[in-house]
Amino acid sequence: MSGGKTLYTCSLRPTGIYGEDHQLMKDFYNTGVQTGGWLIQGVPHDTEHGRVYAGNVAWMHLLAARGLMEQPQTVGGEVYFCYDDSPYKSYEDFNLQFLSAFNFRTLRMPVLVLWFLACFNDLVRWLLSPVYKYAPLLNRYTLAIACTSFTVSSDKAQRYFQYTPLYTWEECRARTQTWVNTFPAAACSKKDS
């Protein structure tokens, strides 16, 4: 940098984020409402994904920034996966634990059928691209991601800049569920709490 100073950076990589105001969770809910209470599943049962609560990801960013100021040569230039105590589940099962209050029913589709639907969506998106921005939730990329297990076991952020999750899994679940409970019951009958 000008003046001979060095800029130190690091990379924080969440495997998947959830929490209040998470648009993808809202999209799954909206899909369930639009289909009259049905959610299509197709991810293999043994697929696992690591999800991290948004508040813990934000906390990790703050601690990493402090670490970069206090120990730039140690923290800088490194990559850190974001992690907390959230359970490893498929995206579908993870989202359903929060959406279960809406009594959505699931319909299991073979992955091959979903792949053909994803290819069709990609074709429609390509055909419409000159005149309309069609952005389907299901495409070949999202299907590949959903069907691929990705979990992380690390304590690197704890070792390098003393990160421990600010929120426990119980707090993350409660805060996210409180937000999900604000969704309108619309076409689905919400369970009595």
Layout: helices, strands, pairs:
Layout: E1 11-14, E2 17-18, H1 23-34, E3 38-41, E4 52-53, H2 54-70, H3 72-75, E5 79-82, H4 91-99, E6 105-108, H5 111-128, H6 140-146, H7 156-161, H8 169-180
Parallel strand pairs: 1-5, 2-4, 3-6
Organism: Merluccius polli
GO biological process, one term: steroid biosynthetic process
Protein name: 3 beta-hydroxysteroid dehydrogenase type 7
Could you characterize what this model shows?
- The chain is mainly alpha-helical and 193 residues long.
- The longest helix has 18 residues, at 111-128.
- Mean pLDDT is 91; it is low at 187-193.
- It is built from 8 helices and 6 strands.
- It has helices spanning 23-34, 54-70, 72-75, 91-99, 111-128, 140-146, 156-161, 169-180, and strands at residues 11-14, 17-18, 38-41, 52-53, 79-82, 105-108.
- GO terms for molecular function: oxidoreductase activity, acting on the CH-OH group of donors, NAD or NADP as acceptor.
- InterPro entries: 3Beta_OHSteriod_DH/Estase, NAD(P)-bd_dom_sf.
- Residues 2-105 form the 3-beta hydroxysteroid dehydrogenase/isomerase domain.
